[in-house]
Write a structure and sequence with these properties.
3 domains; 335 residues; alpha+beta; Immunoglobulin-like; 36% strand; five-stranded mixed beta sheet
C-alpha cells in the first residue's frame, strides 16, 4: 500500500547543520545567548535516559545523548516551555525562566509509565519501514536525502530515492525528519505500518535556490567572454529532464546531438581534474539528477561538472573559481 505523508512541520534546512550530520564531526559554535542544558533521568534511580525527545519552545527539539544530556545554545532571556518525552515514561512539561546567566542547568526526572494488561506479557515487535522521497512538481526522485528518526539510526535515499528504516517499534509513534539539500525539511510523526510505503514530498527552499543561483552566476561570470564556450551549458533544470533513465553520457549525447564523447581530453569535477579517461565508462556511472551544472568547453575537449554537494561547499567558502585553460598537447593540459 502506498502512503503519502504530508509534511507535519516544515522548517528551513540550516546548511551548517547539513554539514555536521554529513560528516559527523562536531563543529564548535560560539554561543551568543544563554545555554540551556541538562540531563534526563529515571525518577528515583538517577539512571540516565538516552534518546528522549527534548523540545524547547521556539528552539526546536533534539534527542538526548547516550548520557541523557541535552543542550540548547543562543537562547534569549525569557520564559519557555520545556517538554520531554521518552518511550516507557510519562511525559514531563515545565516552564523554565532564562535570564542573563551564561548557563541554565535543568534536571528532568521521568516516571516509568507501567502498562497493565491483565498478567499478559507484551513484547513490542520491531519492523522495517520503507519509502521514497520525491519532488512532486518535477516528478523527480531525490537522491542522498537524509531520513532521520527518534527511534533508530537514520538513512540516506538511494539512486532511486528509496530509503529503509530498520527495527522501528511497531505500534509506537515514530517521528521522522526528511532533509534533502535544497528543500524545506519535512517533520512528521505517525504510527508505522510495515505494509505501507511512505512517500515524502518536500518543497523547494527558495532561500537555498537563491544561493545556488548566486553560485551559478559566479560560474557564468567566470566564463563570460571566453571563446571556449561553444555549447550551451546544462544547468539543473535541464539535467533533471534526463533523470530516472539516462546516464550523464546518454544525456550529453542526446543534448548535443553528437558522438564526440570519446574526444574529451580532460574532465574537471568540482574544480579538480580527474583522470577518468576514456570518459565513456565514467560518464555512464554519473546520474544527471546528482549534478547542478555541466559544461562542454574547447570544442568538446574539456568537460566541467559541478555536483549538488559542491554547491553546499561554495556557500560557505571564498572559493576562487579558475578560468578554464586547455592546451591540446599529449597529454592534454587543462585547468
Amino acid at each position: 500500500m502506498l502512503c503519502r505523508v504530508s509534511p507535519g512541520r516544515i522548517e528551513r534546512i540550516g546548511l551548517i547543520a547539513i554539514l555536521v550530520l554529513a560528516t559527523a564531526v562536531p563543529i564548535p559554535v560560539l554561543a551568543q545567548g544563554v545555554v540551556v542544558q541538562g540531563r534526563v533521568f529515571q525518577f528515583g534511580s538517577r539512571a540516565v535516559i538516552p534518546n528522549a525527545t527534548v523540545d524547547l519552545e521556539g528552539y526546536g527539539a533534539m534527542l538526548t545523548t547516550a548520557g541523557g544530556t541535552f543542550r540548547f545554545e543562543d537562547v534569549e532571556p525569557g520564559e519557555y516551555t520545556l517538554r520531554v518525552e521518552a518511550l516507557g515514561f510519562s511525559p514531563e512539561s515545565r516552564v523554565i525562566e532564562v535570564d542573563s546567566t551564561t548557563t541554565v542547568p535543568v534536571l528532568v526526572p521521568l516516571r516509568i509509565a507501567p502498562l497493565a494488561v491483565d498478567s499478559l506479557v507484551v513484547e513490542l515487535r520491531r519492523i522495517d519501514i520503507k519509502g521514497r522521497v520525491r519532488d512532486a512538481a518535477l516528478d523527480l526522485l531525490l537522491i542522498n536525502a537524509e531520513v532521520l528518526t527518534n527511534q533508530v539510526a537514520g538513512s540516506l535515499t538511494d539512486a532511486h530515492g528509496r530509503f529503509t528504516l530498520k527495527d522501528v517499534l511497531e505500534g509506537v509513534p515514530v517521528r521522522v525528519v526528511v532533509r534533502p539539500f535544497g528543500y524545506l525539511r519535512v517533520d512528521t510523526t505517525f504510527v508505522p505500518d510495515e505494509d505501507e510505503t511512505y512517500v515524502f514530498e518536500p518543497v523547494p527552499d527558495p532561500w537555498v535556490e537563491g544561493m545556488i543561483k548566486a553560485q551559478i552566476d559566479k560560474i557564468e561570470e567566470r566564463s563570460a567572454g571566453i571563446s571556449a564556450i561553444g555549447r550551451t551549458p546544462m544547468n539543473r533544470e535541464r539535467l533533471v529532464f534526463y533523470s530516472g533513465t539516462f546516464s550523464l553520457l546518454e544525456a550529453l549525447e542526446v543534448e548535443y546531438r553528437n558522438r564526440e564523447m570519446g574526444e574529451i581530453g580532460c574532465i574537471i569535477i568540482d574544480e579538480k581534474r580527474e583522470d577518468f579517461l576514456p570518459a565513456d565508462h565514467f560518464l555512464q556511472t554519473l546520474l544527471p539528477e546528482e549534478l547542478e551544472r555541466v559544461e562542454l568547453l574547447f570544442d568538446g575537449q574539456m568537460l566541467r561538472i559541478y555536483t549538488r554537494e559542491f554547491m553546499q561547499y561554495m556557500f560557505d567558502s571564498e572559493l576562487e573559481l579558475r578560468t578554464p585553460v586547455f592546451a591540446d598537447v599529449s597529454p592534454p593540459f587543462c585547468l
